[in-house]
């Protein structure tokens, strides 16, 4: 059976490529061999050779930042669609009380 080679073109962040190439060189492996090894491992185990983890959502990042800053968590009443119900008159009065008076 003839072993026919194929070309793969991949766009990757240049910093990632340089860091990986440097580490691979220290291991004595070129990038082509590393990619070939990766593909062969996928075939052998019939899955990725590592468990990908999803990145945190914006909501999770925001909640984490709030916890680190010790900002109190408040819950606003919501309508049936989940939109916050705001008492505009109450907030208008509070805003007016914060306006400095002329002396």
Averaged pLDDT: 86
Give the % helix: 40-55%
**Helix and strand composition category:** mainly alpha
Please report the number of helical segments: 4
| Order of secondary-structure elements | HHHH
Q: What spatial form do the alpha-carbon principal axes imply?
A: elongated
If you compute it from the alpha carbons, what radius of gyration comes out, rounded to the nearest whole angstrom?
28 Å
Instruction: Show unreliable segments.
Output: none
What distance separates the N and C termini? 95 Å
Largest sheet, strands/sense/barrel: none
| Beta strand count | 0
- β content, as a range? under 5%
What would your notes on this structure say?
The chain is mainly alpha-helical and 103 residues long. It contains four helices and no strands. It has helices spanning 14-27, 31-45, 58-69, 88-98. It is elongated and about 80 Å long. 0% of the residues are buried.
Question: Which key phrases capture this entry?
Answer:
103 residues; elongated; single chain; 4 helices; mainly alpha
